[in-house]
Design a protein that fits this description.
This protein is of the alpha/beta class and 454 residues long. It is built from 15 helices and 15 strands. Helix content is 40%, strand content 18%. Strands 2-3-4-5-6-8-11-12 form an 8-stranded parallel barrel, surrounded by 5 helices. α14 packs parallel to α15. The structure holds beta-D-fucopyranose (FCB). Beta-D-fucopyranose binds next to loops.
Length: 454
C-alpha cells in the first residue's frame, strides 16, 4: 500500500454549482414570468414525485444562509445560473428590474463573503412565452437571448468576469425535444436537432456581446461529455458506440472548436438535419476562453435497431460500482480519458470541471448528521483522476462539485440528492452539511488530497 499527496496548482478554483430553477423557488415573486420548467413540472405525470420547483429549496429567500454555509466551508467559487424569466418575464420586451435587483443582492452578498460568482446564462429555464413561439427551434429566440445577455452582462460586468453561455446543450435539446423527459416535453427528431443548432448559435453569438460588455471576460460553454464504450466488440456495437459519441460528444464539441458538425453524423441524420445558414458555423466557432466539462458517468452502448435516432441504446455492466442511480457509475477513469481526449482533439483548451458529483440515498442520523461515504469516495476518486490528467498535460483550472445542496433534480423531482449539503424537505428545508462537504472543505484548505492505494 502507498499513500501519495496529490497537490493541485495554486489558483486552482474549487467550488460548487447550482442552477436557478433547481434551487430558487419564489416562482411568482419579484415579477418572475413562467419558464418551460414551470409548465412542465405542473403537468401531471412529468415529474417522478409529482413535485415542482415552485419553492425548490427556497434559495430566493434563504440565499444569505446558503452563502454563510459556503463561507463556513471555505468555498471561494460558486457557479450559479440566472433565471431569464426573472429579468424578462416574457423572454423579451419588458425588463423586470426586481429580477435584476435580486441577482444584484445575491452577487454582492457572495462577493462580500469572498466568493466569486461564475454565471451560467442558460441552464434550461427558457421563458414559456418564447417556447410558445417555437422555443430554440425558432431563430428569433437566439436574437432575444442576445438582448437578455447584453442586459445582464452590462448590469454585472463590474463584478463578474466568468460567464458560461449554455449548460449542456445535449440535455437541453435531446432530453427536452427527443425523448421528452425534460421540458418542454417534445418528442421529435428534427426539432431536437433544430434546438441543438439554436442553442449552439446562441452560445456563439453571445460571445462578442459578453466581451463587449465585460472588459476582463472569461467565456466558455458547458458541455456534458462522456467516455463511450461499445458493449461488446461486435461491429454493430462498435458502430453504435461511435454514433452515440457522435451525437453526444462530437455534435456539441466539433462546431464550437472546429466550426463543423461531424461529417459521419451529418450523413447519418440526412433529412433530419436543421437548416444551417451562411455564417452560422463561423458564429458558433467564436473563440472561447475555456470549456466547462460536466462529467458524471461512462456510457456503455449497444446496437438497437428500434431507436429511430441513432440506432443505439445505453446498457450497463453489472460489475461497475454505482451509487443509487442505475445510470450513474462510479468510474473515474472515464473522466481521466475524457480530459485527455479534450487535450488531444480539441487543442488543450483550458478546462473547468463545471459539474461532477453523484446522488446517494442520504438520511439524517439521530444526532442530526448526514454521512455520505459513497459520495466522499466518488469525489475523492474523481479529484484524483483529474489530478492524473493534469500530470499528463491537461489544462484543468478548477472544479465545481454538483451540487452545493440537494435540490429539484428536474424530472426526478426531489427523489435524488446530489448535494454536499443535505436539505431536509420535511423539516422547514433545514440545511445540514454532509460529510462530503467537510471533505471538500479539507481538500480546499490543503489544495489537494491524500490518496491511498493497494
Ligand atoms: C446535469 C445538470 C444539472 C444536474 C446534474 C445532476 O445534467 O446540468 O442541472 O441536474 O446533471
Amino acid at each position: 500500500m502507498y499513500a501519495q499527496f496529490l497537490q493541485f496548482p495554486d489558483q486552482f478554483a474549487w467550488g460548487t454549482a447550482t442552477a436557478s430553477y433547481q434551487i430558487e423557488g419564489g416562482y411568482k415573486e419579484g415579477g418572475r414570468g413562467p419558464s418551460i420548467w414551470d409548465t412542465f413540472s405542473h403537468t401531471p405525470n412529468k415529474i417522478e414525485d409529482g413535485k415542482t420547483g415552485d419553492r425548490a429549496v427556497d434559495h430566493y429567500h434563504r440565499y444569505p444562509e446558503d452563502i454563510a454555509i459556503m463561507n463556513h466551508l471555505g468555498l471561494e467559487h460558486y457557479r450559479m445560473s440566472l433565471a431569464w424569466s426573472r429579468i424578462y418575464p416574457e423572454g423579451k420586451g419588458n425588463l423586470e428590474q426586481r429580477g435584476l435587483d435580486f441577482y444584484d443582492r445575491l452577487i454582492d452578498s457572495l462577493l462580500k463573503a469572498g466568493i466569486k460568482p461564475w454565471i451560467t446564462l442558460y441552464h434550461w429555464d427558457l421563458p414559456q412565452a418564447l417556447q410558445d413561439k417555437g422555443g430554440w427551434a425558432n431563430r428569433d429566440t437566439v436574437e432575444v437571448f442576445l438582448t437578455y445577455v447584453q442586459t445582464v452582462t452590462r448590469a454585472f460586468s463590474d463584478r463578474v468576469d466568468h460567464w458560461m453561455t449554455c449548460n449542456e446543450p445535449w440535455v437541453a435539446s435531446y432530453c427536452g425535444n427527443l425523448n421528452g423527459a425534460h421540458a418542454p416535453g417534445i418528442q421529435d427528431i428534427p426539432t431536437a436537432l433544430e434546438v441543438a443548432h439554436g442553442i449552439l448559435l446562441a452560445h456563439g453569438k453571445s460571445i462578442p456581446i459578453i466581451r463587449g460588455e465585460v472588459p476582463n471576460a472569461q467565456v466558455g460553454i458547458v458541455n456534458n461529455l462522456a467516455w463511450v464504450e461499445p458493449a461488446t466488440d461486435k461491429p454493430e456495437d462498435i458502430q453504435a458506440a461511435h454514433r452515440w459519441d457522435g451525437s453526444y460528444n462530437r455534435w456539441f464539441m466539433d462546431p464550437v472548436f472546429k466550426g463543423t458538425y461531424p461529417e459521419d453524423m451529418v450523413e447519418h441524420f440526412g433529412p433530419f438535419m436543421p437548416e444551417i445558414k451562411s455564417g452560422d458555423m463561423q458564429a458558433i466557432r467564436a473563440t472561447t476562453d475555456f470549456l466547462g466539462v460536466n462529467y458524471y458517468t461512462r456510457r456503455i452502448v449497444a446496437y438497437d435497431p428500434s431507436d429511430a435516432f441513432i440506432q443505439a441504446k445505453q446498457t450497463y455492466r453489472a460489475y461497475a460500482p454505482r451509487a443509487e442511480f442505475e445510470e450513474f457509475e462510479n468510474w473515474p477513469e472515464a473522466l481521466y480519458k475524457v480530459l485527455l481526449r479534450v487535450k488531444k482533439e480539441y487543442g488543450n483548451i483550458p478546462v473547468y470541471i463545471s459539474e461532477n458529483g453523484t446522488t446517494t440515498l442520504d438520511t439524517k442520523t439521530e444526532d442530526g448528521c448526514v454521512h455520505d461515504p459513497v459520495r466522499v469516495k466518488y469525489l475523492r476518486h474523481h479529484f484524483a483522476a483529474t489530478w492524473q490528467a493534469m500530470q499528463e498535460g491537461c489544462d484543468v483550472r478548477g472544479y465545481f462539485v454538483w451540487s452545493l445542496m440537494d435540490n429539484f433534480e428536474w424530472g426526478f423531482g426531489f427523489t435524488k440528492r446530489f448535494g454536499i449539503v443535505y436539505v431536509d424537505h420535511e423539516d422547514d428545508l433545514r440545511r445540514i452539511p454532509k460529510d462530503s462537504a467537510y471533505f471538500l472543505a479539507q481538500t480546499i484548505r490543503d489544495n489537494g488530497l491524500e490518496m491511498r492505494s493497494l
